[in-house]
Design brief:
By secondary structure, this protein is α+β, with helices and mostly antiparallel strands. It is built from 7 helices and 22 strands. 17% of the residues lie in helices and 31% in strands. Bound molecules: 2,5-dihydroxybenzoic acid.
């Protein structure tokens, strides 16, 4: 028990009599709230997730090994997950977010499926990758950003004439499972026949645009300045109901102001090199490194050269529940 000597907080000393009582409660699947109250009602968010930095140098060999060790077919999705040591049980990279690095060889494909979880991808390397989303075939190049929104059928592959392709997947799997709201279905056809998808009278809760090409996004980032939000063009809001994504431009030598907010963020270094301070950690990052910012952690970024950070977050889910909060005035 975490006792606190503050009025309104639990502060009960153990006695032999109480200890016997607690054992008795446990045996009946009961419990004394005052033993856990100070933990389950923290003064402010106390994420189990810790700030993590997965260097590409360490992730890459594991990803290439996966491609040699298991077939894409048997694995269904051949992905090396990035696991936060505080959130192993939920296969989370941070908070409510999952991320992994998927690898496909030329001529390989995954079978078509759909799930309640929303997914997004940021392509890391390779030529000839494609994804088919609700019948629409999208060709993917390096640093393209692509959505497979909740409930859409999707399968991916690499053309026989392509190269080994690697991309980062981001999903809200831990959120769906926390809410006990996840579903999964296999498509009756192993791979979807591309048909094209009509956008007429679009009423889905996610963006009608599934593919955001790098060249256009980068040009928009340069024009917008520091941040380019990937948007649903119909609402000007986030791309999906639970997850948002953005690009951030860091100029050489600049160090950002520290910020904190509820909601988790997972970053991939799209280009450049620099550093981030997250909580009590300092990360020195390079291209393709992935790192996370757990909820309510104070953080800031700086760049050694002009750099672009891709990131995705659970802010739309937090906002929808009225739980998004930020604190922009932290004294460094
Ligand atoms: O491609 O839909 O990394 O369902 C994990 C689960 C990717 C996917 C992942 C998935 C997918």
């Amino acid at each position: 028990m975490k006792r606190e000597n503050v009025i309104g907080r639990a502060n009960v000393e153990d006695t032999p009599e109480l200890e016997a009582y607690y054992r008795e409660l446990e045996g009946r699947n009961l419990g004394a709230l005052w033993n856990v109250a100070n933990e389950i009602e923290p003064w402010y968010p106390q994420p189990k997730s810790v700030p993590m930095h997965w260097k590409w140098r360490a992730v890459e060999p594991a990803v290439r090994q996966a491609a040699a060790l298991v077939s894409a077919e048997k694995a269904a999705r051949r992905v090396v997950m990035l696991v936060n040591p505080g959130r192993r049980e939920w296969s989370a990279a941070a908070g409510l977010l999952y991320t992994g690095v998927q690898v496909m060889n030329p001529g390989e494909f995954t079978s078509a499926h759909r799930h309640q979880a929303s997914a997004l991808r940021f392509v890391m390397e390779g030529r000839g990758a494609y994804t088919v989303v609700d019948g629409e075939r999208l060709a993917l190049g390096a640093r393209d950003f692509v959505l497979t929104p909740n409930g859409t059928w999707h399968d991916h592959g690499v053309e026989a004439g392509g190269t080994q392709c690697i991309w980062q997947d981001g999903l809200d799997i831990p959120l769906m499972n926390s809410l006990d709201a996840n579903f999964y279905q296999v498509h009756p056809d192993t791979v979807q026949a591309p048909t094209g998808l009509s956008r007429e009278g679009w009423s889905k809760p996610y963006s009608p645009v599934f593919l955001y090409k790098w060249d256009q996004s980068y040009a928009a980032l340069k024009q917008d300045g520091a941040v380019h939000e990937y948007r649903n063009p119909l609402t000007n809001g986030p791309v999906m109901p639970t997850m948002g994504a953005r690009l951030q431009l860091l100029t050489k030598g600049t160090a950002g102001e520290p910020v904190r907010h509820t909601g988790s963020v997972i970053y991939q270094v799209a280009s450049g090199s620099g550093w981030s301070e997250v909580g009590d950690q300092r990360f020195e990052w390079q291209e393709k490194d992935i790192f996370c910012v757990p909820s309510w952690s104070t953080y800031r970024h700086g760049a050694r050269e002009e750099s672009v950070l891709f990131s995705f977050n659970d802010f739309p889910a937090m906002r929808a529940l009225g739980l998004y909060r930020e604190d922009w005035e932290i004294k460094a």
